[in-house]
Design goal:
Oligomer: single chain
Helix content: 40-55%
Number of helices: 13
Strand content: under 5%
Largest sheet: 2 strands, antiparallel
Distance between the termini: 55 Å
Shape: globular
Order of helices and strands: HHHHHHHHHHHHHEE
């Protein structure tokens, strides 16, 4: 029997899907932004892209094992709504919190000196704003991997053992607040106009969905510019040398400049996750990072009977050698 992945239709589809879905999302966003209810219609477009990605995950999956349920779908959606859509009431608005924040907060900064190059075409302003925001996202993301006090929150995102469209927004709210502060505040202070924030929010929303998708897409030279599924799969590797790379959320510009770009000529890993453990339920996952016991569990540390802490694996890593002591069972509410 012929392997479908080697057929011409399969190859064409795998090459076309990433740019097609991304472009469709941006075109839909353009129509939404010109409507009288931009956030409402943007979310309609967003959910349509989610459904298309979910469909193609079944048609041409990158990893068939990732199609199996992991019992975390409710938690994934709940974290998306809390961390990315806390200011919006409807579930469909979960991925566009940056737009809502920009709409509400932008007027508060209009009294600051305006140094933004507003005379440039909007497309160039968006490109400039995206590069600036990406620097903040890069710093926040890299810091979350290298500083244990931040990794305790970011580990929730890396605790998944499969990548698919629904766990795109699985972030602890503290992790999200940190990233928003470092990426959006510089743009506010520079006086960037509201449309720049809206378009950056759109780019981030659709690239985020595609980055986590379980579709066997082929992105070729796009890997040199954008954060693509292949690059992000390396970022989720349990191997530190592979996982502590590709920090860019939308672009890989800063990874290229700071030497953290990683894209070897081999298949990315499918055995992903962290050395520690996170709570099984949504409430537990929210509170776990705030307790000493939960902190140890997330880091994959255990306690010796004499009370001394034993560190297993690399600190804050996703090295599979990490373990939790049998005498230190995981608390479901994250409390000590």
């Amino acid at each position: 029997m012929t392997d479908k992945s080697t057929s011409i239709p399969y190859a064409l589809l795998s090459w076309i899907l990433w740019p097609a879905l991304f472009s469709a999302g941006l075109v839909g966003a353009g129509f939404a932004f010109r409507s009288t209810a931009p956030l409402l219609w943007f979310n309609a477009v967003y959910l349509a892209i989610v459904c298309l990605i979910a469909l193609f995950e079944r048609v041409i999956p990158f990893e068939k094992e990732w199609l199996q349920r992991d019992g975390q779908t409710f938690n994934d959606v709940a974290h998306t709504l809390l961390s990315k859509g806390g200011v919006q009431l409807a579930a469909a608005l979960g991925a566009t919190a940056p737009m809502a924040v920009a709409t509400v907060a932008h007027p508060l900064f209009m009294s600051l000196p305006d140094v933004w190059p507003g005379s440039l075409p909007l497309a160039l302003q968006v490109a400039l704003g995206l590069a600036i925001a990406e620097l903040g996202l890069y710093v926040a993301h890299r810091a979350a991997h290298e500083i244990l006090s931040l990794w305790r929150f970011h580990a929730l995102h890396h605790s998944v053992e499969r990548l698919w469209v629904v766990n795109t927004g699985r972030f602890h709210f503290m992790d999200s607040l940190f990233k928003i502060a470092l990426s959006q505040l510089p743009l506010y202070l520079l006086g960037a106009p509201l449309p720049v924030f809206l378009w950056i929010g759109a780019v981030t929303a659709f690239i985020g969905l595609l980055t986590h998708c379980n579709i066997d897409v082929r992105t070729g030279p796009l890997d040199l510019v954008f954060s693509t599924p292949g690059l992000h799969r390396w970022h989720h590797s349990r191997v530190l040398a592979e996982g502590n790379t590709n920090y860019g959320e939308n672009l890989v510009l800063w990874d290229q400049l700071f030497g953290t770009y990683f894209n070897p000529d081999r298949r990315p890993p499918t055995d992903i996750g962290i050395s520690g453990r996170v709570a099984d339920n949504f409430i537990g996952q929210l509170f776990q990072p705030f307790s000493k016991k939960g902190y140890r569990q997330i880091l994959g540390r255990r306690v010796h009977p004499d009370g001394q802490e034993i560190r297993t694996g690399d600190e804050g890593s996703r090295n599979p050698s990490g373990a939790i002591s049998e005498n230190d069972p995981l608390s479901t509410d994250g409390t000590a």
